[in-house]
């Protein structure tokens, strides 16, 4: 059974940076598309970024393009999300996701979820 465990969330001031990590166990992460989603209070869960299992295909939501970077370390079976120039509107619970196909842009594409980690950006 797949387990995804996020870490790295917390409180940061606007303009600051933060890196989220997602460690996977139970199935080789490198063979699946890895993604990050987020959900703010009162809003639906939304796509943030995804990286294919060979690392060639990378996608970002328009709202984070140029500020966030998704990456993976196959040897460590870990997915990362580097977040720079954070804004208060980035405040949300961030979820790591594993998608069985190359497409990983909506919740319907996700096979496994992490438990989520809170990111709060103060103004």
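^ Assign residues to that structure.
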């Amino acid at each position: 059974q797949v387990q995804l465990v996020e870490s790295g969330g917390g409180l940061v001031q606007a303009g600051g940076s933060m890196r989220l990590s997602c460690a996977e166990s139970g199935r080789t992460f490198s063979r699946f598309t890895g993604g990050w989603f987020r959900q703010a209070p009162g809003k639906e869960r939304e796509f943030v970024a995804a990286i294919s299992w060979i690392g060639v295909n990378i996608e970002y939501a328009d709202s984070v393009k140029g500020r966030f970077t998704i990456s993976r370390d196959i040897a460590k079976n870990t997915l990362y999300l580097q977040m720079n120039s954070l804004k208060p509107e980035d405040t949300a619970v961030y979820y790591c996701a594993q998608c069985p196909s190359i497409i990983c842009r909506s919740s319907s594409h996700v096979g496994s979820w992490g438990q989520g980690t809170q990111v709060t950006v103060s103004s």
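The CA atoms of residues 31 and 38 lie 23 Å apart.
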